[in-house]
Amino acid sequence: MNNLKDIATEYWRNGWNVIPVSSDKRPLVKWKEWTLFRESEDHVLLMPWDQAEGVAGITGLGYAALDVDKECLKKAKKFIEGLPKTRIHRTPSGGIHLIYKTKKACCSTDRLREPFGIEVQGIGNYIILPPSFEGKYKIENPETQITEVDDLENLIYERAKALGWKEKLEGLSIASNNLMGISPYEVSCVRFFINNPFPESSRELIIGKNFAILGLSALRLEDIEPFAEKLTEKQPNFSKTDIISWLRWAREKTREFNCSEVSKFIQKYYPNFKCEDCPLQRITKEPKKNIKDYCSLEELIDYWHKNYYIEDDAPLIITLATAASNKLEGDPVWLMLVGPPSCVKTELIRSLGEEPSDQVWPISTLTVNTFLSGQGRAFSLLPKIDGKILTIKDFTSILQKEKNTRNEILSQLREIYDGYFSKGTGGEVDYQNVKSKVTVIAGVTQIVDLYEAVQGLLGERFLKVRVKAGDPKEVGRKASEVCGEEDEIRSRLKKLTIGFLNSIKVKKLEFDEKTQNAIIDLAIFIAKARTPVFRGYGNVVEYLPESEGVARLLKQLQKLAWGLAAVLGKEKIDEDILKILNRVAVDTVDQRRIMALRAIGKEPIKTHEIAIKMNLPTETTRRILDDLTMIGLVVKEEYKEGEEKEYKWALKSDIILPDLNLQCIKIREGYMMIENNLPLSDFGTSQKLEQETNEEKNEWVESPKREVISKWLKTWNYFPSNIQIRLFFEANKDGFGSFDEFQETVKELWKRRMDDEEWIKV
Fold first, then answer.
1. Which of 194, 321, 454, 719 could bridge 564 with an S-S bond, Cβ 3.0-4.6 Å?
2. Confidence check: pLDDT of 697 > 60
3. Given a cut of 70, is residue 739 above it in pLDDT?
4. What are the DSSP calls for 683-705, one per residue?
């Protein structure tokens, strides 16, 4: 393939802002700021093209694209015929991109996908450019030049109206991130406020805060003050300070520009005011739907981190993926969030919705008559939740019910998972049968590991993810910051979560042979490792355990993989997704068994040595090891210690184990970081030190190296992102053998470059 750096440079010279992307289309650099500003050639050249598989062009300013998937080509044909002829790029899947130059900024939208099969890739997006991915992206008609239009957005909507599409405009509350690229001076209410005086009533509260949000979202920082001056020059006793004073508030968290509120304020004094030719009217995705109902994964995770102390994003990502998998046909994925009380698991479940809706049905507990009632379908839950996500925030209460009641409920869940449940009753309706498909997401404490019999009764329907409590001081500090705002936060999280799930598409992606084998190995491990061993009086094993088949598990893991790909915006099942599935596999198994497997090696090790590593009593450890032996993961050999018989244990040689280390997952600015056995605070600005085990002294010691890295990263984060990129690539051109050497080189470059005004401008 041609040199990607040369290809990217040529695109840049033709007016594109370009970035390198990996094989799964993920950007290899931060890129959001280049949606509004022009890159320099030097900046392009310093990007890591040697690590890239393709070149992406940022859309919105200068260039935009009409995106038509292969299955929508027929639907889009008539629409495209009425547009100016332009260059077309063919994607590997058979879809097309129609490329246009546009003098005015073009917003992204998929409002025209349903009627015409068209999506507009504008501000906030990028497209892959030919000949990326070894030529799989191609130019369909190289003889045709890219057509330039004055206002592509207007051209598209006029074409849609000509074909009978009607735009419905509503009063909106618009998320600040959707205001990027909008000129505030073109907004109807801004134009009107600038030209007409208003009395003092409520100006600061309504106009001040909303126009501060608009200015902060749509303008450069240096342009906000002139904007505020322009707004207030005809308003008596209303100064730019009344708007600028809201900026700190507007920055604290994601805010919304409330169109309806501003319009009502203006109409109170000028009843004839109407929103006409306003760019905000076209942002809405659907009539009567809050624009905030659609958000990015990055924005959703940022909101979680603003309001909760979370060291590990895995539970959130896996919960979203499970919910997303509900869009797929076939057997569902069932998930348990396992963790101690007050560890965010309940908040994760509540974020999916606290009231029944067309997608989610929350419930606190179950009885034997909940799913099918003797009083008929009107009083039965199962017919109402078909095709929905059933959330149970406290599954522990079900486990702690009277034994016969508990067993009956769990048996019903087993049948419901299989898609068909019938029941005879003594009520008004003596027999009912219902076919249904239900995704279940439940919260439960670690007590679930003690209910070995429960695993058998459920027929191994649930996957699990463990939710860690987090550093108590950090958790307490964050809880104190948001005290009193819980209802607002939960309401916002629900909107963001449901909106994010509504905005993603879940596809059945292909698995290559290596990936397929890896998932099969995980399914085999789960099936063996969670096999229950039933013991009777005196811990006597009642019968030999037998592992479940892997077919159901394999389907669940595959569906979860597709859900993860949708959540993370990936077009293939890659290593990141496999590592998350690895995490699920390890979390699904009783953690005492995982601890034992970690402690055992290929060489035989004594029971009391394993007990010390696990920090459990020797007898408890021996029982766990006996269970692992019976289910075929461990082998034991007898030896004599004095007059007593004892045993040594080793991993069975033919067993393929997943990575048993704790895997913490962090999403930062759209990128996933996975680290084994390290607190994630090391990757941010927290001053928390890692505690490492000194095997010789068997005591905890602090790691000063982590403190150095954390402090340095804290300083690094203050650098402007464009400066970060340039410093990093200049310092890393020739490679360095140590972190300290790299750090010192960056510092030296920073000192030198601070005196170079031209370099700083770039």
1. 321
2. no
3. no
4. GSS--PPPEEEETTTTEEEE-HH
According to DSSP, the residues that pair with 143 across neighbouring strands are none
CA dist 475 and 756 (Å) reads 43
Q: Which residues contact 368 (CB under 8 A, 6 or more apart)?
A: 405, 408, 409, 412
Place of tokens 């750096």: 5
pLDDT of residue 91: 94
Q: What is the per-residue pLDDT for 417?
A: 81
Q: Flag the least confident range among 37-51, 106-120, 126-140.
A: 106-120
**Contacts of residue 626, Cβ cutoff 8 Å, sequence gap at least 6:** 533
Indicate the helix (H) or strand (E) that contains 634. strand 634-641
pLDDT, residue 380, reads 66
1-18 tens-digit pLDDT: 458 999 999 999 999 999
How many residues can be counted in the chain? 762
CA–CA dist 83, 375 (Å, integer): 60
Mean pLDDT, residues 664-678 taken together = 58
Q: Which amino acid is at 380?
A: S
Among residues 550, 484, 542, 547, which one has the least CA distance to residue 522? 550
**In this predicted structure, what is the pLDDT of residue 751?**
56
Residue type, 370: T
Strand partners, 54: 21
Q: Which residue has the tokens 């604290």?
A: 252
- Give 130-168 pLDDT, tens digit per residue: 999 999 999 999 999 999 998 888 899 889 988 888 754
SS3 content of the chain, % helix, strand, coil (to 5): 45, 15, 40
Q: Which residues fall within 8 angstroms of residue 53, CB to CB, at 6 or more apart? A: 21, 22, 23, 132, 133, 134
Closest alpha carbon to 182 in 261, 278, 100 = 278
In the chain, what are the domain boundaries?
A: 4-162, 173-292, 297-505, 674-761
Global pTM exceeds 0.85: no
Q: How confident is the model at residue 326 (pLDDT cuts 50, 70, 90)?
A: very high
Between CA 631 and CA 5 the distance in angstroms is: 54
Query: Which is more confident, 381 or 187?
Result: 187
Fill in the DSSP letter of residue 27: B
Phi/psi region, residue 756 (left: phi>0; alpha: psi -120 to 50; beta: rest), is beta
Number of DSSP helices (H) and strands (E) in the chain, helices first: 30, 25
Three-state DSSP at 676 gives strand
Q: What is the pLDDT of residue 738?
A: 45
* Tokens found for residue 36: 């509004």
Distances (CA, A) of 384 to 346, 351, 373: 23, 21, 12
- Residue 38, exposed/middle/buried by CB under 10 A (0-12, 13-18, 19+)? exposed
Contact call for residues 203 and 235 (beta carbons, < 8 A)? yes
Fold of 297-505: Rossmann fold (3.40.50)
Q: What is the mean pLDDT of residues 601-627?
A: 89
Residue partners of 446: CB distance under 8 A and separation at least 6: 338, 339, 340, 591
What is the C-alpha to C-alpha distance for residues 106 and 129, in angstroms, rounded to an integer?
A: 19
- CA dist 417 and 333 (Å) reads 9
User: End-to-end alpha-carbon separation of the chain, Å?
Assistant: 30
Longest Cα–Cα distance in the chain: 100
Q: For residue 136, give both structure tokens.
A: 């799989």
Give the CATH number of domain 4-162; options: 2.40.50, 3.30.70, 3.30.2250, 2.40.128: 3.30.2250
Q: Tell me, what amino acid is at 729?
A: F
Q: Rounded to the nearest 5°, which phi and psi values hold at 310?
A: -130, 120
